[in-house]
Amino acid sequence: MDLLEEYRRATMFFETGDSAGAARLLEPIVEAEPHNISVRQLLARAYFQTAQLGRAEEQLRAIIAHDPSDHYAHHVLGRTLERAGRFAEALPHLRLAAAMKQHADYTEALRRVETWVGRSGGRSS
């Protein structure tokens, strides 16, 4: 298997809206190259888009374990946890991402989750 060609195909699938197809192509690439952060990140995004939140979380946590300063991975992990209704768990990741990089999406997600956590008294869901 030509991993680079498969990655390119997966990227095309993802960009054209076939996140499930992209994930199927990316899974064996991550298995073959577990330290390839770009592939892992795209796989996490494909999982997020297809509501495979547990799988997205797994990939994002692997990225963060490799590079704790990856603000985008923290942001997407926070969004994944938010989408799963795990607001209190999402908050630290969203705060880190917003502190590391000024970005409107990061700020918006952080405010949204802070509001949810405030309403629930810190409880998840």
TrEMBL record:
InterPro entries found in the cross-reference section: TPR-like_helical_dom_sf
SUPFAM superfamilies, sorted: TPR-like (SSF48452)
Protein name stated in the entry: Tetratricopeptide repeat protein
Taxonomic lineage of the native organism: Bacteria, Bacillati, Actinomycetota, Actinomycetes, Micromonosporales
